Amino acid sequence: MTFIDTNVLVYYVDERYPEKCRIATGIVASAIDNANYLISAQVLNEFANVAIKKLSMPEDEAGAYVREFMQIKTVDQRAEWTCKALEIKKKYGIQFFDSLLLAAASANGCDEILTEDLADGQVYCGVTAVNPFK
């Protein structure tokens, strides 16, 4: 199973980076049609925040995208992932919220995470970071 990080969803809507937008569009289309992809509620929350604050997207438009992304298999946040995220952060020296995504990916049996925020090819707690934009 493949976990999708927030930056993939952001590039899906951000046309300032046409090549990244094209790649993200393909990933999202595949994820909607394939149960082997996964996102978490955290990813949806982060997307909404970035869309509104950094992309100056109106709330209604951001909400429409969130509803579209909810077609991808989505898991709710679990409290126990916070402790796992702290362990991951300490072990790998990465940002807490990236660690929280890895905890969610690991807990749900994902073997890879599509992201540009982690070292491409690095394995974190059994989850390999893959940068689809490189």
Question: What report would you give on this structure?
Answer:
- The structure is a single chain.
- The protein has 134 residues and is of the alpha/beta class.
- Helix content is 54%, strand content 13%.
- The chain has 6 helices and 6 strands.
- Helix 3 (41-53) runs antiparallel to helix 4 (59-69) and helix 5 crosses helix 6 (96-107).
- The two termini are 21 Å apart.
- The mean pLDDT is 97.
CATH class: Alpha Beta
Radius of gyration: 14 Å
What's the overall geometry? globular
Proportion in β-strands: 5-15%
Largest sheet: 6 strands, mixed
Annotation keywords:
alpha/beta; Rossmann fold; globular; 134 residues; 6 strands; six-stranded mixed β-sheet
Fold topology:
Layout: E1 2-4, H1 6-13, H2 18-33, E2 37-40, H3 41-53, H4 59-69, E3 74-75, H5 80-92, H6 96-107, E4 112-114, E5 123-124, E6 127-130
Helix pairs in contact: 1-2, 1-3, 3-4, 5-6
Short description:
The protein is an alpha/beta fold. The chain contains 6 helices and 6 strands.
